[in-house]
Known about the structure:
alpha/beta
Amino acid sequence: xxxxxxxxSRVLPxxxxxxxxxxxxxxxxxxxxxxVEDVFDYRYLMNDELVELLIRKRNGxxxxxxxxxxxxxxxxxxxxxxLMDDYRSCSNHCIFCFIDQMPPGMxxxxxxxxxxxxxxxxxxxxVTLTNMSDYDLERIIKFHLSPINVSxxxxxxxxxxxxxxxxxxxxxxxxVDRLYEGGxxxxxxxxxxxxxxxxxxxxxxxxxxxxxxxxxxxVSIVPVGLSKFRDGLYPLESFTKEDAEHLIEQVExxxxxxxxxxxxxFVHASxxxxxxxxxxxxxxxxxxGYLQLENGVGMMRLLETEVKERLSQLxxxxxxxxxxxxxxxxxxxxxxxxxxxxxxxxxxxxVSVYTIKNEFFGEKITVSGLITGQDLxxxxxxxxxxxxxxxxxxxLRSGEDVFLDDLTVEMISEALGTEIVVVDEPGADLVDCLxxxxxxxxxxxxxxxxxxxxxxxxxx
Length: 460
Ligand code: SF4
């Protein structure tokens, strides 16, 4: 077994780690005499009421510590590499891969193609199962690690091989049977490509996938994202309004079947489909508790609920504020509606909502999460911005105030001559950021396709 160095980077206040006088820079050598291979091992070995830790302090001393704790209680420490192992890259060449559609010259971590079941468990990444070993599969089942998020794309094995450009992709579906039999909760995703895995192929996939419910608790259907950098790649087209209407009917048909059978809606169309079809978002009860927000499923419905809830807690008044909001084409009309709700209670707040066209990746990319600092800067220049510009936190890199193109919030703020306020995800934050002065808080959000900078684990 490869030995990784698990260097502690942070000890949380009030934690067992603090009580044990652990410090950043200390190394976890073993738990109960066993070396820790990765985060799966760590979680498993820590799940006990009595554990023995071997810690190597920075001065080279080795401490043997006996810890009595609640069964699932954690040490309360963070490691330099949260995966506790090297990241595994994918072995596919998917015809829809967004990383292949990025221009050259962006920061290196953005080009990393991960396909790691440990990341699925840790931070919700979707995995194709093509490089999940039997050993991993056994550990997931044995350690009861769930949910595991699976990128299905198609249940027709041949089509899956074609879409993932991997001759083992069809066979990899057999691992779903093992996870299902092992009772491992799963969520699924289908990236829909027009004329490839939609319509009849989707019908076939949903029929097959429905057999795994309710262990497979949800399947989202998201439309493929197409940037302008597709030269030499598989020809793919955008979906039309009529396609979106068809897709929604197909999804709603399956929702009815699954509600009757299992009491869950199971399959969900992402918000983009409803916007493209010009339909209202489904009511809250149809999202089964918002299991796939990261895939843009129910984000708008939840935002509206939260905005209304926050507004119901506030007394309106006549405060005067001039502000603007910048967002992508997809969400702009909806955000406008939300700002109008705020204005009903605060009539002297004037808000301009600016739709930022994605010049960087191309106009077919309409989500706010892929808007660059450069596009914001160019398109908001010389506009009436008021005293602050609100932007959603998903425009920024995880844990930093940095856009995809490495421009910073501060740079954009200076260039535009106004305050940039980063709005966190809950709808309450949109309301608060509009009606209150900026509190200069830093927002942390993960970008699921980007490798973190601390991913290189030292090898002993
Ligand atoms: S879409 Fe995901 S699995 Fe497919 S090639 Fe890209 S990174 Fe790999």
